[in-house]
Amino acid sequence: MRTAAVATALATLAVLGAGGSSARAVEDDVPTRQQVQQAEDAVVAGQRDVDAVRADLVAAREKVATAQLAASKAAEAFNGARYDARQARLDADAARVVETEAQAHSDRLRDVFRRNAVRSLTTHSELAVLSSLADSDGLGELLSRSSAIRVGRQAFTVRNDDLEAAADAASAAREAADQAEDDAVAAADRARVARGEARDAAAGAVAEEQVAAGREQALVAELARLQDVSIAVAQRRESGLERRRAAAEAARRAEEQRQAELAQQAAAAAAQPEPAPAPETASPEPTQDPEPDPEPAPEPPAPETPAPETPAPAPSGGASAAIAFARAQLGDPYRWAASGPDAWDCSGLTAGAWAAGGTSLPHYSVAQYEQSTPISPGELRPGDLVFWGDSSSPSSIYHVALYAGDGMIIHAPRTGRPVTEESMYYWIEPNFYARP
User: Fold this and answer.
1) What is the pLDDT of residue 273?
2) Considering the entire predicted model, what is its pTM?
3) Which of 412, 418, 369, 414 is nearest to 73 (CA)?
4) SS3 for 222-267, per residue?
């Protein structure tokens, strides 16, 4: 926004720069106090404008931070949905195995039942039963044959119950497998939605940041221009005044020299032939005793050497390999859902680092925490994992980094920022810690 003061200051510079068309000599072309004040007023007005827009920039940067956070969450949501889809697929495969086994068992029982039914009808038809009872010798034999028939029928019933139970188990397994399949499809759909959200959020964050950076650059340039206007006018006035002061001083000295020469000429004309008396020699002023040399200042006491800090124990085994792997990726670009070899997201980098250390971790920050041992911040040592979450629940985790020691982490921050090593508190304080 260009104020009247700014326009006046620019007009002042234009006038001052047009030395060839000015009626006065360049040495006399000195800005007035009013012109200097107008330029200073333009800077004040411009500073107010810049301050106002910088307040807007603060809000814009907050939007950028919010968009970046949304991108991180969406990227990890995609990793989580993809992880759930894989788990659902494994559950579906296991359910299909159970279904196949249950169906095979049901088929075997059905075959046994069919053979037994045929045998029973052939051996114990109603006619055969009546004939058997008629041919019985005595009541005891009759009761014995009747009991055998009942036992056979009971066994037949039990086999039928087993067949029905096997059929029910096969049906239940089939339903479980179908449900697992549906869950896998739904999880895959959620993964695709999360992937789209991650892309949109990341693109929005980058766009917001670019707009904010462009506005800030333009505002800083505008403020610098206004300040240059004021400085140029003030310097022009100071230089002009200095030239005027120098010219006046030169004129004064020339006049004094001329007056001195006239006085000498007048004195020579009025001089008598007798020699002039010798001029009195002015007695030298007594010299002051030199000041005694100052006593040397006492030497400051030697600074106490602080006791060396106890170094943190060096990471061992898998942790050192994980850190070495992560450091080898410094500078690689961030790309959501990437797990190397030339691009990474946050959980992809930590999974790759610990794979180099001999420990398998899923490509999902929540699952990495769940499959590690939770620790407190005071227990952190190089190689541990540091997490950021929205709440006190581990299910809210959306970012993970590898602890490198001395308060530093190695991580893949977000879109637009490569893999880097920086302070653990570079952003907001983490709230979960774990050891693989």
Assistant:
1) 62
2) 0.55
3) 414
4) HHHHHHHHHHHHHHHHHHHHHHHHHHHHHHHHHHHHHHHHHHHHHH
